[in-house]
Amino acid sequence: MVEVRHSTWDNPETIAYFAERNVSFCNIDQPQLGRALSPTAHVTSPIGYVRLHGRNYDQWFEPEKPSDRYNYLYKSNELIGWKERVETIASEAKITFVIANNHFEAKAGVNGLQLKHMLTGRRVAAPESLIEHYPELKAIADPLGQGQAPASLPLLRTDKPA
């Protein structure tokens, strides 16, 4: 797995080099500052990988507190593009991972649930306290029962034949 952040890495020769060596490419979302890598949907190995860092432009390079850099809640319209990219990546990869790194105040969890809902078209289960804190979840999420665990650990699983 390789994660690069500069746009000069996004060229056919580099992508082919990774694919020839079976090195997974990390498709990232980040603030588009300077020559930052734009969103991609590359698959260079059986593992598809996406990492959403958030888009906190003001705090990206000089955060007031370490937690500020990833203090970002994606809006639904920002996740739509990633839904489409994830579907493209998943259609080519054997297994696909989507990691939200905007973890401050459980925003990664909120965006993960929103993206899961977008990908499946089904309501999702979420802790009641998360739904209370982020009321936008009420439209797509049902509270987990007291002490109830999710049916399975993965947020989304679509097993593919070997």
Question: How does this model look, in words?
Answer:
- Helices cover 28% and strands 14% of the residues.
- The mean pLDDT is 88.
- A three-stranded parallel β-sheet has the order 1-2-3.
- The chain contains four helices and five strands.
- The protein has a single domain (7-122), classed as TIM Barrel (Alpha-Beta Barrel), CATH 3.20.20.
- It has helices at residues 12-20, 76-92, 107-120, 128-133; strands at residues 26-29, 47-52, 95-100, 124-126, 141-143.
- It has 162 residues and is an alpha/beta fold.
Q: How would you summarize what this structure contains?
A:
Helices cover 28% and strands 14% of the residues.
Give me the secondary-structure topology.
Blueprint: H1 12-20, E1 26-29, E2 47-52, H2 76-92, E3 95-100, H3 107-120, E4 124-126, H4 128-133, E5 141-143
Parallel strand pairs: 1-2, 2-3, 4-5
Helix pairs in contact: 2-3
Q: Mind describing the biggest β-sheet? A: 3 strands, parallel
- Helix proportion: 25-40%
CATH top level class name: Alpha Beta
Assigned CATH architecture = Alpha-Beta Barrel
Give start-end ranges of low-pLDDT stretches: none
Backbone shape? globular
Number of domains: 1
H/E element order: HEEHEHEHE
Which features characterize this protein?
162 residues; alpha/beta; TIM Barrel; two-stranded parallel sheet; 5 strands; 28% helix; globular
